[in-house]
Records
---
Amino acid sequence: MIASLAMAFAIGIAFGWTLERAGLGSAKKLVGQFYLTDLTVFKVMFSAIATAMLGVFWLARLGLLDLGQVWIPQTFLAPQLVGGLIFGCGFACAGLCPGTSCVAAASGRGDGALVVAGMFCGVLATGASFGALQTFYESGAEGTFTLPELLHLPYGVVVAIVVVVALLGFRLAERLERRAAAHASR
Amino acid sequence: MERTLAAIALVLGGLAAISGAPQPSGRPPGISALDLAAAIRDGHGGPDSPWVMDLRSKNEWGERRVPSAQHAEGPIEGPTDHDRTLVLYANASTPIEATAASLRAAGYRRVYVLEGGMDAWLDQVMHPQVSAGDDRVIELSRYFGGLPRARGGSPTAVATSAVAPARPRGGC
């Protein structure tokens, strides 16, 4: 238990350090995502997804990771749609998401500290009213989904497709950023 | 630097496409087609019969399936009784381990994978090749409306075997 907590702490520190180094502790940078002027969030997150996906695939392929032990979250359609909307509104208004707000707060930004405080207020309010929310919270269970199951394609082929989509996405993001920079300099 | 990383990702992704699916060591235990057939027959559709889940496409499920198998392509709804035996089968390309892991995580303790999938069901139960003394196989095959064949012979070669008379099809 202590080892798991220590590992989670170390991973959390590494995650926060990476976000900070990528510049994602700045609300200004994050908001650029919504205006298509700065797609750092997209590039960082998709890089992380592609890296983790390749790591999981090859570790499992080499027998170093047991995929049977990897937890796949279930889909609860309506509750997750509502949760996503609330999250999106909060992200757009504050310019920070939960991880980046912690990074901003840790690096001394006041807006980050306020978002963290708001986040904890939200957690507290949800916990206090959970009895009334529980039926909705547990509604619409759809089971688990994975891309190979949905697309009826072998796991490795899906991995290759996601890598290609990521690289094309990075190229498009760079183009959009250059166009936005040229437009701003006019 | 960016080009190098992109090239590494492309190489690893390309190799993934041709390297085959990972084989997790924690693969759920298997159940043979004959054992599954016996369990379905002996359970008579009651709470002791296995809960069979077909993870293939709806079309494949519609064409042919293990009797009593429910289609579970997307949403996975297991039985309310978490002690009930669950048996999954899918195509070779479907990562059945993910579904099995989710079901185990949801509290189902007896999750099995049909060894050989639908092909094994067809080969071992519906069209088995039998020898003298394979009465259990012949009986199970006939119970599900199968056609046992003598090894290297025709279906009629086992028609005189001293087994129980054929029973109605089980809905395969």
---
Amino acid sequence: MPARHITQGLDRTTRPVQAEVDARPRPRTVGPITQTDIVRFAGAGGDFNPLHHDLGFAASAGFQRPIAMGQLTAGLLAGWLTDWCGVENLLRFEVRFTAPLTIGDVVELSGVVTSVEELKDGFGVATVELTAARGKDLLVTGRASVVVETG
Amino acid sequence: MNSTASGAGTSLIGRVVDTARFDVERGKIREFAHATGAADLVHTDPREAQARGHPDVLATATHVVVSGHYRDQRAVVAALGLDLRRIVVGSTAWEYARPLRAGDTLSGTRRVAGDEIRVGRRGGTMRLVTLETEYVDSDGAVAVRQFEVLIERGTA
């Protein structure tokens, strides 16, 4: 189900990115994550759970140091994705939280186009499988539906 | 993990848990973009946004997360009968009818869309509560729909 702005907006100034199956946008590496990064996201998003900034509280919850909000990892993944495809071409974005991002972590954001459904006039909807990973550990897996050019 | 039965809280389905009403602002879009490494100038430069056919800068994909500033998460968790210490967010999904932009006024009403008990592989139980939020603009049209699944681990 393409969204309203997509079906009506095929003559937009900025055209969607070209993509085909197996396309891989260039991965982005972020980090090492600092307490400041987490605090900045707390202020931006409004999540002031002390688990994310209070060392003593985090310790009482069983963490050696504060952990980041899942939504920080999700936001990093979304930001990387839309820097590639344009936020106006995003139809759906879904994330599953697997493990927490922690201070000191270096996270790699990557993805691959797994299918492209033709719409019309050389446009299609690509499914992109996404991961945010710390080395071999998956922190977040995700999936997006993105309007792309197929021609 | 197998789904076994719907939870005891089936009666919660459809219940409104809270409503957040807020303006989508240039400054907040900028803060959120910087905090998440979103570098596209469409989020921070009105000229770039206009060149791409938008009346003002566009919000980042997960911008509605900022509604956290307008909600009382602890009160919601308590109203759902959940224990904050045992909760994690399992997944979140957003469906976009259009991109959000500075100048939008949104009203986001969260409802319980699902509530079930599952048995894990090791025999412990967990409760999964799905919350659906419709973010409606000042014209009454849904701009973004969000689904979040809260997981409460069992005490066993």
